[in-house]
Design a protein that fits this description.
mainly alpha, elongated
């Protein structure tokens, strides 16, 4: 955030310096660019906010419920995958010998 603010401030202030603006205007441009550049939301964050808005998940409670539901489903899928791997392992030769060792 600080790096973005500094880079935008340098860009905006550099333009006023190149124009030969008075020192007060240059300082104003540098600080204004740094302020708004540091407050700017990154592109991935903006896209995430747009996705949430388009999908109707602007309510924080609904978002939390959806995340909880997704975590629960992921846990169930993980358990199902474990069971499928175990059933497959039981079909391999030598599995019974390992189990009784």
């Amino acid at each position: 955030m600080a790096a973005r603010g500094m880079s935008v401030g340098m860009f905006q202030g550099g333009i006023s310096t190149a124009r030969g603006a008075p020192l007060e205007m240059q300082m104003y441009e540098y600080l204004l660019g740094a302020w708004f550049g540091g407050k700017e939301v990154s592109r991935p964050q903006r896209r995430a906010f747009e996705f949430l808005r388009e999908s109707g998940m602007t309510d924080p409670v609904q978002r939390a419920q959806n995340v909880g539901r997704a975590q629960h489903e992921a846990l169930e899928l993980q358990q199902q995958a474990k069971n499928a791997e175990l059933r497959f392992a039981e079909t391999l030769p030598g599995y019974a010998d390992l189990r009784h060792a």
